[in-house]
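Hey,

Quick one before I head out. I ran the complex with pyridoxal-5'-phosphate overnight. Inputs first:
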Amino acid sequence: MSTKKFLLEEKDIPTAWYNIVVDMKNKPRPILNPGTKQPVKEEELYPLFAKALAHQELNETDAWIEIPEEVRDMYKIWRPTPLVRAYGLEKALDTPAHIYFKNESVSPVGSHKLNSAIAQVYFCKEEGVTNITTETGAGQWGAALSYAAKAFGLELAVYMVKVSYHQKPYRRSIMQTFGAQVIASPSMSTKAGRSILTAHPNYQGSLGTAISEAVELALQTPNCKYTLGSVLNHVMLHQTVIGLEAEKQMEMAGEYPDVVIGCFGGGSNFSGISFPFLRHKLVDGKEIRIVAAEPASCPKLTRGEFQYDFGDEAGYTPLIPMFTLGHNFSPAHIHAGGLRYHGAGSIVSQLRQDGYVEAVDVEQLDTFEAAVLFAQAEGIIPAPESSHAIAAAIHEARQAKEEGKQRTILFNLSGHGLIDMAAYDQYLAGDLSNYKLTDEEVSANLSGLEKII
Ligand SMILES: *Cc1c(COP(=O)(O)O)cnc(C)c1O
């Protein structure tokens, strides 16, 4: 066996994030003020977000945005992350394909989410913010932000989707260990929470509802900002450290990927691994395929509509141009909680619309089958979210075998699943099922959208 792991040194941690918008011919459509339907101005974002983040959100002129020294210092705790050649998986599949994965599960909180959490907290701290709010689904973002908030001395309140609050109690414990306040959403502590609980007392929550609650609390609390772990342009930006490192590591391996794969919730780890490679296509016309893997039960990229929609359930956010299933869409309670989101970020949505991004949907049982195969071959228990990328990578490797051709596959292992063993228990006991949506279910929440596009 030749080299298994491709390792960079601390000095190789990127010094700038990559802003792909600058290199896109068709820029994403602007986010709109829902009242006036006019593009949102940077100042309009200030009540909600730190100014530096608001500026990054709308930045279409700087392709490279410097990573502050304090952020790079924190990145040193676990970055650069390894790029790994999955020899074990290749052997198990008996495929001629070369499979590589970027291992973001080695972060202290177990996922890629810390790349943006640290940056967001840093910029809040820089402008004197003392409190932040957020939402979390499976708890990965909440865990990352809790650690980042503690590291920079900010107070954090997290609205955690109720079904995950109960399904994944240890992620709640992690957040509490780092000193965050965790509230199950929907809750009675906000107007958005109360109104949905009044209508549906047993509602188990969604990311959309939790966002509404976190936004509401941030707007009502002095010196407080809201933070989001996915979907927004500045989050995609911060995550590009993943792909920028992987770009160098693939060079060390002496290969170039034919296909780059990421699982897809709102798009942050997918954008992180893929945008630096997509740059070669946008700027140099290089041939490369980029594939997003999403759950069949929450198929915004494969079956949703490209339309302006709210980022949250109650409609507090600006209107975002996105592939969406409708902001009132309530996904099935699959275990990949981080992928249970109704929409895709505006950059990825535009890239998908323009044909730069492919998407596949994967059934829950196929993701767990892939997860178990990967775990046995590589010794890492993947997060249920990441298992969507693994399933898509396995599919590519099997195709390569059928065609009898080499294919170089790179996927992002966005996190480990060591806090998700209850889900594995259920899978191993045969208690999990697929949730295939009917066309009626897909269109149910789309008909209500105002057709701005
Ligand atoms: C949150 C999360 C995701 C999904 O979010 P994206 O913004 O689409 O990346 C995927 N994998 C893991 C491990 C996560 O924690």
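The CA atoms of residues 88 and 377 lie 5 Å apart.

Talk tomorrow,
K.
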